[in-house]
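Notes from the 1:1 (GR / supervisor)

We went over the backlog. Supervisor wanted to see one worked example end to end before approving the batch request, so GR pasted a single chain during the call. The sequence is below; no edits were made to it. Supervisor asked that the structure be written out right there so they could see what the output format looks like.
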Amino acid sequence: MTLTTVLVLAAGTYAVRLGGVLLRERVAVPEHVRRLFALSAIALLAALYATNALVDGEGFAGWARALGVGAGALLAVARLPFVFVVIGAALTTAGLRLVGIT
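Structure output shown during the call:
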């Protein structure tokens, strides 16, 4: 089942990309729709990150992980280098787990 899903998604991705190349000159996409495409990609990635960061198995991963992700987000917004963002998020999560917050 997993292999079939991967193959179907790969074929769909290839078809969409090929369609973009073949139809580039034939279809005019308005500028506001292009902006929405960019925003939808950001929203999709944010949803994926939130799901992976906050869910473990079938339930909530715990407050330590959620607050660690939040700390990492704040460090990223502050434009710190990526390594500091990752270390800050990990230290926040580890510190909270050390004091008993799971």
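Supervisor's comment: The two ends are 34 Å apart (CA to CA).
Batch request approved.
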